[in-house]
Design a protein that fits this description.
A two-stranded antiparallel ribbon has the order 1-2. By secondary structure, it is mainly alpha-helical. The protein has one domain. Helix 1 crosses helix 2 and helix 2 crosses helix 3. Helix content is 66%, strand content 6%. The model has no long low-confidence stretch (mean pLDDT 89).
Amino acid sequence: MKIQTKSGFVCDVNENKAKDWRFCKNLAKADSNDESTIIQGLAFIVPFLLGKDGEDALMQHVSDEDGIASTQRILEEFKEIMNLMSENIKKSQSSQE
């Protein structure tokens, strides 16, 4: 499914990957209160869900003028991607009923 965030980032997401155990396990890490654990989870989830090209595009999209891709910006974009993905899945399921 194609996702576009409010900031204009566009990516293709394979919604079946969200059902993968490794994804779920690392998503739990990304929802931690510990920054190190969040980064561990995101380091797996982002390339797993978006693919290498999608991850590179995300890094470029959030990078500042010095080329720095802040963890906070990655987290914000990723949360929005997950919310949009969830909304699209719910819409798809309700239209099939």
